[in-house]
Specification:
With 756 residues, the protein is of the alpha/beta class. The chain has four domains: 71 residues, no CATH class; 201 residues, P-loop containing nucleotide triphosphate hydrolases (Rossmann fold, 3-Layer(aba) Sandwich), CATH 3.40.50; 239 residues, no CATH class; 92 residues, no CATH class. 42% of the residues lie in helices and 13% in strands. The chain contains 25 helices and 20 strands. A hairpin with a 2-residue loop joins strand 19 and strand 20. Helix 6 packs across helix 7. The chain starts with 15 loop residues before the first helix and ends in a 12-residue tail after the last strand.
Length: 756
């Protein structure tokens, strides 16, 4: 029987000498845990070896206290299954750890700020603590980590892997998207930060990668029983979500004996967990091939699964009643947004939410419009014969975007930044069009290089004007960057243009994007391969003319999200007006979902009881229809809410004048009904006791912006009509000031003129 542990520590344990012995006992218990023993078993072994029972009891209590501290970390915000609340086991980083200290040193060498490293440390500590203990007879963990697009999810799951290895997990399988370039990028990162970093720090080769940069999981010659039972070895597989590759891996593991698998706890990290992993078979009782194989992998005796995604919509719609599937029944972790992260909200702004005390920021002035004429010119014809003859144009907006990219890269060089600099060109998903863009872009580069080299006055004047305009739009100093005059960057223009490469990256291309060690200046042209997971190093300019019809696809296509340390004033995005409006809506959706996670954590809601509210859009799907088969539409009530819109078609004169006329008609109807308005100060007036007929007339005339999704005329009118049936919302207050009209109401039978 394990020893009974009294809490708090016994009085005898308070002397410095005994405290040191207690720490020693705690460290020995943790050492036993890393060898696959439970804390109680490790403590019992110490007592059987003659260690004083009171020291062991106090040491075990200290281990449990450390584990509890990991579990109750407030950041990141987390929804936890009730059964997991009593399973605190992970004591955090301890003196005998090898892999996290090596990774931490590597992150320091990379120049990552201390605050970012501390954030990774805290978040990974909590996530590892939510896994099942590696000594349990059976492991069936299902978890989900919500990150942000291009926010450092790879760093987080690398830290989770390092700490899980220190804690006793031994085989790590990273499912890395569906494209080879992302798999290679992830393999390179993990080899550098896990394998080589620990070898450098400790001069020991503990990691054995079973995949490499050039080879996904193939036919392993050694049988799993011989390999996985090697003492003090840890195994890494980075596997593309491909049926054959997963089949190779699963068949190899299933050939191992039950004893081998029980001694080798497995952690599966599913990067881009909403892509390919979710079952989208048309028949509910069937499974897609990738989902079927993933479920088969997770049914091995000791496997913990953690999905990572910035677009969790599909994962939250998985049927939670199917226990073998990937619904995150054990935990949902919302990673904190780093202060220097450039995400949808910072770039595009968002609508105000109910919890906001103040209006949210409208975003940085970094969005540049591709006008409708250019958008039409960039789109290939739909008919195959016409498309085959299509020559992609170098439009005026593309020329301006390219010239700004050269200027911004020269400014980075003038600031002393010798690092990669990238421009993304994404106009279509058609690979044949990508290839046809290569020569026109190269010709644009060569033409500009000649003009700069010969000091063409017109070209230099245009570049100066462009640079000064952009510097005034986003000043450097408020963002902590060094201001750069045109004359300071001009000497670097020729160097930038001479070294600028034009690369096409798609499945047909032979010269795929590869950065290497030396700083590269590159314009990369592509489509789907660049729209999921892949990091574009030093991305400065994005020229994006392609639209998509689903939330997750749109967010993932935003390769411009991420970090821009040292050049946060320089990134620019060229897109169409509609796409800009859609991204603003998505920023609102994302913020609202994370507010819900925080609110549910405060209310102690578990993942199995978590119903994600995801607001809809009249022109966009949330995700594919097959991923939403378990979603349920709900109606949102307007009761107790004061909704407003900050979205206006400010370039549409007719739209604005028509809405102004609707507001004037409402004011006139209110005046006819109740006479003069009451002056309530600060240039505002209120008409009270206005009949609902005037409100209905106004709503029938007023045209809401298409992206103000909660303010839809038909829904509001239907709600008012239903409430009128209960003798409610019959009398309204109408507020007016300085040419604007705002209205809301709440009717009460006892006080029809009550001001709301």
């Amino acid at each position: 029987m394990p020893p009974r542990v009294p809490l708090p520590f016994r009085e005898a344990m308070t002397t410095p000498e005994n405290d040191q012995r207690v720490r020693g006992a705690a460290d020995q218990i943790i050492g036993g845990m890393k060898m696959g023993k439970s804390p109680e078993q490790a403590a019992a072994d110490l007592i059987s070896m003659g260690v004083r029972e009171d020291l062991v009891e106090a040491g075990l209590a200290r281990v449990r206290q450390r584990a509890e501290e990991s579990r109750i970390l407030r950041i990141p915000e987390t929804l936890i299954d009730k059964a997991s609340l009593s399973k605190a086991w992970y004591p955090g980083v301890t003196p005998g750890d090898r892999f996290w200290p090596a990774l931490e040193d590597e992150l320091k060498r990379s120049g990552l700020p201390r605050s970012a490293i501390d954030s990774i440390d805290g978040a990974s500590r909590k996530i590892v603590g939510l896994l099942a203990p590696p000594w349990e007879k059976e492991i069936r963990t299902r978890g989900l980590v919500l990150g942000y697009v291009q926010s450092g999810k790879t760093s987080n799951f690398t830290a989770v892997a390092a700490k899980a290895a220190d804690a006793g997990y031994r085989l790590f399988i990273v499912l890395s998207g569906v494209h080879n370039n992302l798999r290679r990028q992830t393999q390179a990162r993990l080899e550098e930060q896990l394998v080589r970093a620990s070898r450098t720090k400790w001069d020991r080769n503990n990691w054995l990668p079973l995949t490499s940069l050039g080879a996904d999981f193939g036919r392993v010659q050694l049988d799993p029983d011989s390999l996985l039972t090697v003492a003090d070895r840890y195994f890494l597989c980075v596997v593309k979500k491909n049926g054959r590759r997963l089949q190779n891996l699963i068949s190899w593991l299933e050939a191992a004996s039950p004893a081998t698998l029980r001694a080798c706890p497995i952690l599966v990290v599913d990067d881009e967990a909403d892509q390919a992993s979710v079952n989208t078979a048309r028949e509910a009782q069937e499974r897609t091939r990738i989902n079927e194989q993933l479920v088969r992998l997770l049914t091995l005796s000791k496997v913990a699964y953690v999905g990572y995604t910035a677009t969790p919509f599909a994962n939250l719609f998985v049927d939670p009643k199917v226990p073998e599937d990937i619904y995150p029944r054990d935990f949902i972790v919302d990673l904190p947004r780093p202060a220097d992260y450039f995400g949808p909200e910072r770039l595009f702004g968002r609508e105000r939410l109910e919890h906001d005390d103040d209006d949210p920021d409208d975003g940085l002035d970094v969005i540049r419009r591709i006008d409708d004429a250019d958008l039409r010119a960039l789109q290939p014809p739909r008919k195959r014969a016409e498309r085959d003859a299509f020559v992609p144009p170098v439009t005026a907006s593309l020329t301006e975007a390219f010239r700004y990219f050269v200027l911004a890269t020269a400014a980075r060089r003038a600031r002393g930044q010798k690092s990669h600099s990238t421009m993304l060109v994404h106009t279509t998903s058609l690979t044949m069009i990508h290839l046809r863009y290569r020569e026109p872009v190269r010709e644009m580069r060569d033409r500009l290089a000649d003009e700069v080299r010969t000091a063409g006055a017109a070209t230099l004047d245009h570049l100066r004007t462009l640079w000064e305009r952009e510097c005034s739009a986003v000043p450097a100093e408020p963002l902590g960057e060094t201001p750069m005059a045109f004359d300071d960057l001009a000497p670097h223009l020729t160097e930038v243009l001479d070294g600028l490469e034009v690369v096409v990256d798609n499945y047909r291309a032979t010269d795929r994007l590869h950065y290497g060690e030396d700083p590269k200046v590159v314009v990369v042209i592509g489509g789907n391969t660049l729209s999921r997971g892949l990091t574009l190093e030093g991305l400065v300019v994005s020229y994006f003319a392609r639209a998509a019809s689903a939330y997750d696809t749109l967010l993932q296509m935003g390769r411009w999200f991420g970090y821009r340390r040292g050049y946060s004033d320089l990134p620019r995005i060229w897109i169409g007006e509609q796409l800009e409006e859609w991204f603003r809506h998505l920023a609102t959706v994302e913020a609202e979902l994370r507010v819900d996670v925080a609110r549910y954590e405060d209310d102690h809601v578990t993942p199995l009881n978590f119903g994600a509210r995801i607001r809809t859009h009249p022109q966009l799907a949330i995700t594919s229809a097959l991923k939403m088969r378990h979603a349920r539409p709900v109606k949102v009530s307007y009761a107790g809410r004061r909704l407003q819109t900050i979205l206006f078609n400010h370039r549409d004169r007719g739209w604005l004048l028509a809405n102004k006329a609707a507001a004037s008609s409402l004011i006139e109807a209110a005046r006819l009904r109740v006479g003069d308005a009451e002056d309530i100060g600060v240039g505002r007036w209120m008409f009270s006791d206005v009949g609902v007929e005037a409100i209905r007339a106004f709503l029938n005339e007023y045209e809401f912006h298409s992206n103000a999704v909660e303010l839809q005329r038909e829904a509001i009118l239907r709600y008012i009509e239903e409430q009128n049936g209960y003798e409610d919302l019959l009398r309204w207050n109408v507020w007016s000031w300085a040419g604007m009209t705002r209205h809301w109401g709440r009717s009460t039978l006892a006080s029809p003129k009550r001001s709301d």
